[in-house]
Amino acid sequence: MAKVRIDKDKCKGCGLCILYCPVKKLEFSLDLNKKGVRYAKGKEDTSCIGCGNCYLICPDCCIEVYEDKKEIKST
Q: Which of 6, 27, 40, 63 is deepest in the core (most CB within 10 A)?
């Protein structure tokens, strides 16, 4: 399973990452960041597929997508 990390203080709240997530795992926070805007965040039940759309579309480069190593099981 992949994880999304968003730098909330760099986010300007444009919502492009939310719009382009194919599995709809991002949402606006109810809290405000240092800029005074509601920033994007991952939903609590996040099962990100790791497509990287949010990373690619973010104009502020505040998103990282990475593989959660704890979730990988050996065979």
A: 40
- Beta-carbon count within 10 A of 30 CB: 7
Reduced to 3 states (helix: H, G, I; strand: E, B; else coil), residue 71 is helix
Neighbouring residues of 46: CB distance < 8 A, sequence distance ≥ 6: 3, 4, 25
What is the DSSP code (8-state) at residue 69? G
Q: Can you give the pTM of this predicted structure?
A: 0.84
Please report which confidence band the pLDDT of residue 72 belongs to, taking 50, 70 and 90 as the band edges: very low
Of 3.40.50.720, 3.40.50.10350, 3.30.70.20, 1.10.10.10, the CATH number of 2-70 is 3.30.70.20
